[in-house]
Amino acid sequence: MSYQTTVRVKFGDTDCTMRVYFTAYARWIDDAIIEMFRERGITYDEMGGMLFKGSKLKETMVVGEYSCRIVKPSSYDDVLLLEVKIREMREKVIVFDGVFKDPKNGDVMAYGSMTYVCVNQSAMKSAPIPKEIREALSN
Q1: In the chain, N or C terminus with fewer CB closer than 10 Å?
Q2: End-to-end CA distance of the chain, in Å?
Q3: For 15-72, what is each residue's pLDDT tens digit?
């Protein structure tokens, strides 16, 4: 299962050298995961609670870990193709991989991973991923 999108580097995504600042990659991967979820009926409310097809769940997903490797620098106004895939889904954790490519030549510009942890909102402890979320992300 994967999700693809394009990202245009904006001024605010860059550092003083006009290259992409490392935190932008994390935000873009996280945004793509959220959109992947949305396509499968998984959304968040204004308090960070998770909904499945409009029904409130007791659990939500939070970022537990992130890593990124910049292979080639990207700069202001570049367009990047981002593909996000689920690498693995365990009982309480989903690990996503994201790859940024130059859409003109397919060169890998950067890649990273992001780990989401399922959390019971009232107990604020890790919890098993709900069955309906697991099924929605397995198709």
Answers
A1: C
A2: 7
A3: 999 999 999 999 999 999 999 999 999 999 999 999 999 999 999 999 999 999 999 9
Q: Give the C-alpha distances (Å, rounded to integers) separating 43 from 56, 87, 107, 113.
A: 9, 21, 32, 21
DSSP string across 56-119 = E-SEEEEEEEEEEEESS--BTT-EEEEEEEEEEE-SSEEEEEEEEE-TTT--EEEEEEEEEEEE
Boundaries of every domain in the chain: 2-138
Decide if 82 contacts 5 (C-beta within 8 A): yes
Cα–Cα distance, 50 to 133 (Å, whole number): 10
H or E element that contains 10: none
CATH of domain 2-138: 3.10.129.10
- What does the block give as tokens for 111? 């890649």
pLDDT higher than threshold 80 for residue 139: no
pTM: 0.94
